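In practice, a research group might receive sequence data for several interacting partners and want a quick structural hypothesis before committing to experiments. The following worked case mirrors that situation: the sequences arrive first, and a predicted assembly follows.
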Amino acid sequence: MPSTTPKKAYASGIRAGLPFLIVVVPFGAIFGVIGMEAGLNIAEVMAFTVLVIAGGAQITALQLMQDNAPTIIVLATALAVNARMAMYSASMAPHIGTAPLWQRALISYLLVDQSYAASVLKYEEKPQWDVRTKVAYFLGTITPVAPMWYLGTLAGALAGTAIPESWSLDVAVPLAFLAIVAPGLRTPAHIAAAFVALVASLLLAWMPFSTGVIAAGMLGMIAGAEVERAMGRRAA
Amino acid sequence: MDSYPIWLIIAALALGTFLIRFSFIGLTGNRPLPEGLLRYLRYTPVAVLPALVAPMLAWPAATDGVTDAPRLLAALATVLVGWRSKSLLFAILAGLVVFYGAQAAGL
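A structural hypothesis for the assembly, expressed as tokens:
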């Protein structure tokens, strides 16, 4: 039986990654713009984007610094925003866990919402793929995304404060997050998790330095897990 | 902003984020994880991201914290289209069209 070669998988990964550019480029540009507005220089903005490569956490960190939050709160909240990536790591592990260590390290650096979502969907569709093919597909999905993320940030940083506020570019940030979440609302448990987290986040907005966001996220996770447990018991 | 050790923050976020991503891929190989842990981790994206965006949409910094209809309508459109179509692309396009449409309509 002819199976997909790593080369073909890489090419099909690239095709799967391309649609994400509509989110990634403006998102990167927004980080560039607000980074410069916050008083960082280009080297700092680009180091942020290339080394951290996690837009939500980057923007969260900047917002907290502008609120004068203590450094430890800036770090804790931004990393909490990235805690979801432990889940990505956990669900990638059964598929690519036997790849060479350097490949797993490279994949870890490049494990963002977009490359994760595209790859895991494909792995579930093609369980017969070997590890090399799966790694190649993953690298394909990130090939358009990561460089354009860097370039989007650079464009935003260079444009800096020249972009008129009337464009309301800020709206792309929450919409991008919602667009990532919405297709994942597959079960009542997922919907419960999202709903509880959203309501709790608004109710806990009084908590200092955005710690309400962390608390709300945890409440949402608990709600999702408990609804799943209750539904599982009924189904069993 | 000047008072922050910005390079320390960048380095700590870069390292911390890498370690979060490397956690299971790097250390567990292809051994399955305990179901109890997975049950919570499964809901991190759908919980953390809405928690993060809710205040941004309810009290946008761009409007000095005044709730505005275009942002709320755009968020609703993004969620509904994303949920029904399972497509990130359609979801964000729907949100942007509704946002700029509602703004142009003077809502």
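Before designing any experiment, note the following. Chain B has a mean pLDDT of 88. The two ends of chain B are 35 Å apart (CA to CA).
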